[in-house]
Amino acid sequence: MDEQGRPDRPRGRGAGGAAGRGRDVREEEARAWEALVATARRTVADGLVVGTSGNVSVRVGDTVLVTPSGVPYDRLTPDDVTGVDLDGRRVLGTLGPTSELPLHLALYRGTDASAVVHTHAVHATAVSTLVTELPAIHYMTAALGGPVRVAPYATYGTEELAANMLRALDGRSGCLLQNHGTVTCGASLDQAYDRTAQLEWMCRVWLTASSVPGLTPHLLSPRQLAQAGERLRGYGQGEQPVGRA
Questions:
Q1: 100 is catalytic
Q2: What is the rounded CA–CA span in Å between residue 193 and residue 90?
Q3: Lower Cβ count inside 10 Å, N or C end of the chain?
Q4: Helix (H, G, I), strand (E, B) or coil at 183
Q5: Which residue of the set 3, 28, 34, 100 is catalytic?
Q6: What is the pLDDT of residues 11-50, one digit of tens each?
Q7: Which of 136, 134, 120, 133 is nearest to 179 (CA)?
Q8: DSSP for 43-105?
Q9: pLDDT in tens, 187-233
Q10: What CA–CA distances, in Å, run from 24 to 89, 91, 96, 97?
Q11: What is the pTM of this model?
């Protein structure tokens, strides 16, 4: 969640430069941190989060780099690298990880995901309060593995929320969190982010269509989604698409 940024906090002195910072940052981790910060800033620029709400993580080997708790993304520097192991023990940096760490670790321990994006996107959050599953309003539903489920509400930052999320993500690469937001995962930060943007767009389409008085949106059948899924697997340059065709 991480709603409020801290205006002042001590700065690190570079990788391994201060007591308690953990081990030195490896080159691969430094590159991944740079990409993570860019992705976190993109969630703000694209209106998917407000302030420091939401969080982003990426796995590098057995280390999970994650946005720190309560720090505005535009203030993050290479010195702020924050990393934990798969048990949640801090191994890089001095800043505390996001309060939603259980959610991220549950995904890395339970799936083959390499990146996770969690947002409080407006339309997706609105849909999460209305239904238990996002209706199949567009064929790109198939790109997320099928109809997007809504994980039952649980307090943010808890193991209960993480468990609810994992059930909703079974066979999927994205889900909604009831009265909360979105979670998507992927093989890269770009893929996880693009799935988030796609999910928000589909939620906006469904809300717009369903708000027309006297009319009910046409939804795609399971057969139509399966057909779309087959075509999407061969889309583009050998990668599963993450944007609208």
A1: yes
A2: 25
A3: C
A4: strand
A5: 100
A6: 333 333 333 567 899 999 999 999 999 999 999 999 999 9
A7: 120
A8: HHHTTS-STT-SEEEEEETTEEEEPBTT--GGG--GGG--EEETTS-EEE-SSPBPTTHHHHH
A9: 999 999 999 999 999 999 999 999 999 999 999 999 999 999 999 88
A10: 15, 9, 17, 17
A11: 0.87
